[in-house]
Amino acid sequence: MFNKKKQPPIKSLIAEGSRIAGNVTFTDGMRIDGEVKGDVHADESQPSLLVISDAAVVHGSVMADHIIINGQVKGPVHAQNLLELQPKARIEGDVQYTALEMHQGALITGQLRPLLEGEAKPTLTLAANNL
Question: Looking at the DSSP assignment, which residues form a beta bridge with residue 125?
């Protein structure tokens, strides 16, 4: 459905119970289980994956190619390729995306803005509950 290319490996972890005050830049993949007060941006020179778990809180802007959120983000989110919002995702800020997958229960308080090339239409998918 979406370009299912091989994902970059997760090489960085901010563990649950950890608190980072300041901006974070990463390459490849990163998982956040703790708290970050600052911007979290991927190095734009290579493909990137950012996972924000249900225990995580980010106070700042978030930017990567593929972003999976199941925690809280208080700031703008910019997903160059795909943004996946899991059921516990909470975003307070504007969201930019090329493709969006949103599970039931996810909440966005802000504007959704697709990243369009020419007259292309954004890809939106509502993930159904498989009960």
Answer: 101
Q: Is 103 exposed, middle or buried (0-12, 13-18, 19+ CB in 10 A)?
A: middle
Mapped to the 3 state alphabet, what secondary structure does 78-105 carry?
EEEEEEEECCCCEEECCEEECEEEEECC
Judge whether 27 and 48 are in contact, CB under 8 Å. yes
Q: What is the pLDDT along the chain (131 residues), one digit of tens a residue?
A: 455 567 889 999 999 999 999 999 999 999 999 999 999 999 989 999 999 999 999 999 999 999 999 999 999 999 999 999 999 999 999 999 999 999 999 999 999 999 876 555 666 666 665 54
How large is the greatest C-alpha to C-alpha distance in the chain, in angstroms?
45
pTM exceeding the 0.90 threshold for the entire prediction: no
In the chain, where the domains are located: 10-110
Q: In what order do the strands lie in the sheet with 35-37?
A: 19-21, 35-37, 57-59, 72-74, 90-92, 107-109
